[in-house]
Amino acid sequence: MNVLAQPPIPAVLPAPQVVLVPVCVTPDRLRQMLSLLDADEAARASRFVHAADQAVYVASHARLRELLAIECGCAPQELRFVRGPFGKPALCPGHAQPLLRFNLSHSRGCAVIALTRDGSEPGVDIEAVERFDAMHEARSLFMTPAECAALADMHPLQRRDRLARSWTAKEAYTKAEGRGLAHGFHKLEVCFDGSERFSVRPADGTSARPMRGVWSGTVAGQGTFYRVAVVVLGAASPLA
Q1: By C-alpha distance, which of 61, 25, 28, 23 is closest to 42?
Q2: What integer pLDDT is reported at residue 14 of this predicted model?
Q3: Axis-axis angle for helices 27-34, 51-72 (nearest 10)
């Protein structure tokens, strides 16, 4: 299994439970996990060309079902999902926990799940940091002009981390919104406060939805570093 090192995802966010998913599982466990998926999920899994990518998809989606089933008091196979206008999944009406919300992300052998129980909307993203070595030239596609300018004087490793932090923060925010990549990351600006906290706002100055909690950090597993971001959108007061 993927054992993820410090720093752990903190328990300071008011609503979400955040779970790092072991996706390196035995063949028997993987077959058992595959049996938990519905026909649509199994079909999506079968379309992956590489067995490792298929295993990540199966393990992460099966683990999501197991966690949701505990909350709803049913078998994982009994869960049914609907998708929003931009593809964000949600539990079908009629399950035992109508305020339960979730989000899932996976990248190169690691996955992360966020759950909330009060109707607030979670968004989460995990990305292997090394993928951003080649993304500096494409920065204008997902960063504002001001964000791009701030990269100019950075050391290459610092620049790579800033690219990863910006991408994961924006993806977590837009997934919480339910729009994902359809939002246009270059239309959003991320402000970091020097710690693990950040804020996301539209670059045109319009107001953003209230953010109940945010977190950004780095985890490590099997020789790869990952950047993780978590956002919870809701009407409650921001964290102190």
Answers
A1: 61
A2: 45
A3: 60
Which residue type is seen at 17?
A: Q
Which amino acid belongs to residue 119?
A: G
Contacts made by residues 136-141, CB under 8 angstroms, sequence distance 24+: 136/160, 136/163, 139/163, 140/186, 141/185, 141/186
Question: For the segment 140-185, what is each residue's pLDDT rounded down to a tens digit?
Answer: 889 999 999 999 889 999 999 999 999 999 999 999 998 877 678 9
Tell me if 49 sits within 8 A of 70, measured CB to CB.
Answer: no
Q: Please indicate, yes or no, if residue 133 is contained in any of the structural domains.
A: yes
Would 11 be classed as within a structural domain? no
227 class by beta-carbon count within 10 Å (0-12 exposed, 13-18 middle, 19+ buried)? buried
Other Cβ atoms less than 10 A from the Cβ of 44: the count is 15
**pTM score over 0.90:** no
User: Which residue stretches of the chain have pLDDT < 70?
Assistant: 1-16, 22, 182, 221-222, 235-240
Asked whether residue 43 is assigned to any structural domain, the reply reads yes
Q: What is the model's pLDDT at position 171? A: 94
Helix (H, G, I), strand (E, B) or coil at 215: strand
Q: Are 125 and 174 in contact (CB under 8 A)?
A: no
Q: Which domain holds residue 191?
A: 17-233
| Residue 74 placed within a domain | yes
| Cβ-proximal residues to 29 (8 Å cutoff; 6+ apart), any chain | none
Q: Could you give the CA distance from residue 35 to residue 211 in angstroms, rounded to a whole number?
A: 37
Phi, psi of 57 (to 5 degrees): -60, -50
| Domain at 143, CATH number | 3.90.470.20
Nearest by Cα to 26 from 68, 64, 61, 59: 59
